[in-house]
Amino acid sequence: MLTVVDLKKSFLSPEGERVEIVSVPEFSLAGGEQLALRGESGSGKTTFLNLIAGILAADSGRVTIDGAEMTALSEAKRDQLRAAKLGYIFQTFNLLQGYTVLENVVLGMSFGPRGADRTHARATLERVGLGHRLDHFPRQLSTGQQQRVAVARALANRPKLVLADEPTGNLDRKHAREALALIREVCREHGAALLLVSHDEEVLSAFETRKDFGVINCALTETRK
Amino acid sequence: MTLPLIIYRSLRQHALSTVITAGSIALACGLLMCVWMVKTQSQAAFTQTTTGFDAVLGARGSKLQLVLNAIFHLEASPGNVAAADFEAVRKHPMIKTAIPIAVGDNLRGYRLVGTVPELFTNVELVPGKKFSVVAGGKVFNPEAKEAVAGSFAAQRLGLKVGDTFRPFHGLAFDAKAEHADDYTITGILAPTNTPADRVVWIPLGGLQTMSGHDAKTATDVSAVLIQLRTPMAGLQLDLLYNKQGNRLTFAYPVGAIVAELFGKIAWFDQVLTLVAYLVALVAAGSVLASIYNSMSARQRDLAILRALGAKRRTIFGAVLAEAACIGALGAVVGFAIYFGLYAGIASLIRAQTGVVLDVAAGHPVLWICPLAMVGLCALGGVVPALKAYRTPVAETLAPVS
Prior knowledge:
Largest interface: A-B, 32 and 27 residues
CATH class of chain A: Alpha Beta
Mean pLDDT of chain A: 89
Low-confidence stretches of chain A: none
Low-confidence stretches of chain B: none
Largest sheet of chain B: 10 strands, mixed
Distance between the termini of chain B: 35 Å
Strand content of chain A: 15-25%
Shape of chain A: globular
Helix content of chain A: 25-40%
Radius of gyration of chain B: 30 Å
Oligomer: heterodimer
Number of helices of chain A: 9
Number of domains of chain B: 2
Number of strands of chain A: 9
CATH topology of chain A: Rossmann fold
Number of domains of chain A: 1
CATH superfamily of chain A: P-loop containing nucleotide triphosphate hydrolases
Number of strands of chain B: 12
Largest sheet of chain A: 5 strands, parallel
Structural class of chain A: alpha/beta
Strand content of chain B: 5-15%
Helix content of chain B: 40-55%
Strand order of the largest sheet of chain A: 6-7-8-3-9
Structural class of chain B: alpha+beta
Number of helices of chain B: 14
Radius of gyration of chain A: 17 Å
Order of helices and strands of chain B: HHEHHEEHEEEHEEEEHEHEHHHHHH
Distance between the termini of chain A: 33 Å
Mean pLDDT of chain B: 89
């Protein structure tokens, strides 16, 4: 489903030095697999996910999603691939505040190949327990409910791969557990692979398969040396 | 539905600036259309308002003053035409009809014009259309103290058949200058949409011999309204009266003389147009400023849309379309402003001159102006759209700690 080969990304520091943030020689995820990556803040986890999602262009290396090589595509094609194959759950949810819950999910679908499907969006929101909040705006929801909207938006387009960046970082323990269970459950139902990054041991412990991002990302190893 | 939804939500989120910007565009659009329509329609209406006459003969003076006085019932008469001169004109073989008029009195501000019944029975205002008296009335008896009121004057003065009144001396109403003669309304004219609607018509002799008027000029007329047998006759009479003679003025052709008036006030029209163009430019600038200023607040939304798979060009197009929508909204409201302003000005012109502007008249400016405003606004949206186009997604979406 997802293969990463020799993926590198560096940034220019404020001092003008080029700093390598991500250097992943090899990484893969099978279809339907659920994997948690452990990583401290500032370890380049988000950059890694952004590279996989094609939001950032890699300096070098290859990212292949469901047979399509993201890194070989133009920006417009990367946008297209992201909309078609990926669901992204952000730590801060990144909901569109001026749009209703239903519109947030519909918009999430509208750039994909299936287009805006209000019926399916509604069904997905009902699945995450927000069928009665369709016309609410994000600010009218609790944090936990906002997270569920983000989950519904990421999964409404039936993605092959879901990327979750500290998805429970803004939730309390109880809601974090519930949200995590929901994400995993819905991904399973949709047959989507899940790649979750977190520094929270409780979240990580819920996964059967876990990896340390520090081990995968050679840039961190180099920095430590 | 994606693009309309994005535009709709963005406009809603920035409702105040949307309303203010659309309002300034509406004002610009409405003003531009109004200035243009008033200019073209009034020029057309005034130059076509001849009330069926080709020329006017009057005392030596300005042709424009003569036409304004005799046809539009504005301005003062430049002087009198002696009875002998009128008789000569009436019998001239090149002249088909010669209708004398006399002015100098009013009825509570509405001009009293003395004339002959032939004006109502023989003259065609436009081919196939003569004056007509509303049912229940009749044209005055030239030997009696009777009057026929134009439709607008009758409506404003509340006159009806059988009413009596006393004229006031002069062209401007002065309550102390009342004549002692009593006149009876015998008819109300059907609307003609010409200056004749603003006049109360009485027999020529009545005005000439009104109590208090100078007996020495009792046979004079103020002007003679003329229908020619051929257009060539106009040129010959112009030569006769204006070039060879020095006592009278022959104003011909009426339409061309009125057009001169518009030529004289063209500068005013240009100033108004310039102001409207400036307002349009300021409005387009305000679209640019209002969307551009909101870009910082909207960058996160745009980055989210990009993260969801929206292409750069989709975001660019959405901002551009939003600017165009503000322009379209302004143009729609601009039509309301245009109709309101134009109707107000048309009603003012009608009240002052009797000339009726066609409020429902069409003109290319009515579609060119709104389209140009939408285009100008879309142009104003290019700069903020470029800023949106360049939104760095990863940086913008980075969690704020």
